[in-house]
């Protein structure tokens, strides 16, 4: 009778049987709670990063080229209004003085715009689950979003810088390249993290726009982009020195001109660079704890 038992497996099916059917045992799985992905989920982080980059590249006319044109208009208007004659600031013509500040200001504003859209759009459209469900840790989720925002900031900075090199009277020769790279990246990271926190807190686009209009824009424009703070009254100088945007813009300008209004020595710029790095580290830790708590995302 046993010899008459035939397998129900089709005759034309070749190859080994599925796991658990070869020996009649059930497949083995990892114990519950034990992670399947060990270490960093590099594929997941890269996928999220590419998704965010492709999102702003699909509308690059709005996300890259339009900010470049707006920044150039700032340069033209302020050069005509305040750069008349042979006026020198920090030993250079006004257009050369203001150009680095405009470049890094555009970088920071676009880093904020990119990261502030990530979670907010998901909450409004009901697709936030697409970001929260993949096997990504809190740090990996932050890395993908902040990395894409910094990429957009660098792209805007390169486009604006290339355009300004063609502007009459502007020189972008770098005296200290390390300062250009460091302060540019620190400014982009700072605003990317601030945008991430904003996207977690905001419930509609009006909330994000309020942060842009009442926090980011004033801090950018009142941070010495178009002037040196030595021309201000002592009280306003103290307020300017409490503004982290001031150190980003002045340090970035120092990389081009070799001079800044941070201090009288180059060591003052180095101390500002270290302080800005510590400030960004504190921002990253705060954003990490906020994102891990699931506040306004999972509740």
From TrEMBL:
Residues 1-34 are annotated as: Disordered. InterPro entries: ABC-2_transport_permease, ABC2_TM, ABC2_TM_bact-type. It is found in: Cell inner membrane; Membrane. The keyword Transmembrane applies. The keyword Zinc does not apply. Keywords: Cell membrane, Membrane, Transmembrane, Transmembrane helix, Transport. Residues 58-294 form the ABC transmembrane type-2 domain. It is a multi-pass membrane protein. Pfam families: ABC2_membrane. The chain crosses the membrane at residues 64-81, 141-167, 179-202, 208-229, 238-256, 268-291. Signal peptide: none annotated. One of its GO terms (molecular function) is ABC-type transporter activity. Its main location: membrane. GO terms for cellular component: plasma membrane. PANTHER family: INNER MEMBRANE TRANSPORT PERMEASE YADH-RELATED (PTHR43332), TRANSPORT PERMEASE PROTEIN (PTHR43332:SF1). Belongs to the ABC-2 integral membrane protein family. This is Transport permease protein.
């Amino acid at each position: 009778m046993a010899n008459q038992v035939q397998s129900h497996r089709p005759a034309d099916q070749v190859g080994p049987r599925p796991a658990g059917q070869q020996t009649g045992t059930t497949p083995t799985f990892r114990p519950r709670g034990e992670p399947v992905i060990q270490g960093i989920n590099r594929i997941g982080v890269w996928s999220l990063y590419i998704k965010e980059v492709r999102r702003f590249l699909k509308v690059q006319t709005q996300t890259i080229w339009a900010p470049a044109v707006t920044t150039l208009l700032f340069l033209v208007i302020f050069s005509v209004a305040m750069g008349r004659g042979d006026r020198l600031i920090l030993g250079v013509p006004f257009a050369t003085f203001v150009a680095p500040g405009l470049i890094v200001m555009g970088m920071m504003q676009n880093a904020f715009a990119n990261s502030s859209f990530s979670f907010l759009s998901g909450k409004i459209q009901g697709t936030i689950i697409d970001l929260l469900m993949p096997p990504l840790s809190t740090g990996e989720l932050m890395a993908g979003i902040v990395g894409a925002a910094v990429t957009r900031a660098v792209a805007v900075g390169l486009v604006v810088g290339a355009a300004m090199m063609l502007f009459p009277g502007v020189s972008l020769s770098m005296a200290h390249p390390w300062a250009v790279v460091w302060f540019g990246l620190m400014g982009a990271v700072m605003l990317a993290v601030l945008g991430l926190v904003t996207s977690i807190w905001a419930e509609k686009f009006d909330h994000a726009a309020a942060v842009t209009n009442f926090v980011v824009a004033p801090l950018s424009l009142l941070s010495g982009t178009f002037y040196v703070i030595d021309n201000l009254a002592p009280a306003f100088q103290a307020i300017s020195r409490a503004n982290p945007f001031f150190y980003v813009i002045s340090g970035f300008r120092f990389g081009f001109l070799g001079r800044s209004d941070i201090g009288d020595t180059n060591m003052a710029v180095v101390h500002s660079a270290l302080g800005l790095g510590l400030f960004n580290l504190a921002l990253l830790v705060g954003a990490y704890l906020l994102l891990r708590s699931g506040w306004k995302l999972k509740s």
